[in-house]
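Notes, p. 3: input format for complexes.
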Amino acid sequence: MKNRHNLPMAAFTIAVFLMAGCGGGQTDNNVLSTTPAAAPVATTTPAAVPAEPPADAQAAAKVPDAPTGVSAAGGTNKITLSWNAAGGATSYNVYWSPSSGVTAATGARVATSGNVYVHRGLPPAADYYYVVTALNGSGESAASAQAFTATAQLDGSAPYGANCASCHGSLANSSATNKSVDQIMSALQTVGSMCGIALTDSQIADISAALTYNE
Ligand code: HEC
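Output follows (215 residues plus heme C):
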């Protein structure tokens, strides 16, 4: 009786996991180039074939293992966190803190479906610490090993806050995300309400770097 109920859930869980793995693969940072994520698995796993109930059903009924390979890469006002997709996981929780020793009990939680998370709107040259857990219908895994890094020294948050936030919102939730230097320069010249804003080239470059994350 247990297997009969778990079988469709197993197929669903694996299908969702494969989609999440593909979705996390498109960024321009070099963290992902070293992490082959779930792509090779996706091409060889017959996700929807209900031919092997015992092993798959048991795997789905189990809480996933703790995520491995968690790595943090610092950028301008942001940190990109990535990890290996955990077998049987349908989503993840990221727990972060500015202090070392973060746990699922003490960290601020962010839920995410893929195995990449970009933490944005951060101050420059600041340390952040992370652990990640994997979830499925059976529960939440133990926490990964802690990963940490610092944001870059460059700071786009100060010029952004002074010149852009009043109209485009906070840096973490800006309506002008992923805008290149050229796009910002063009907007400064063509958007009527932005014409009075005076910025140096390096301020515009820093703002663009802070706004860019390519999720
Ligand atoms: C006084 C309000 C205001 C301020 C301040 C402002 N903007 Fe804008 N911005 C606008 C409006 C209005 C538009 C046109 C509508 C839109 O695209 O959101 C716009 C458009 C843009 C666009 C083009 C959007 C697109 O889709 O390509 C970019 C890029 C941009 N702003 C960046 C910035 C940056 C960077 C700053 C700070 C240096 C800034 N803006 C400050 C009001 C403002």
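Strands lie at 71-75, 78-82, 91-97, 108-112, 116-120, 127-136, 139-140, 147-150.
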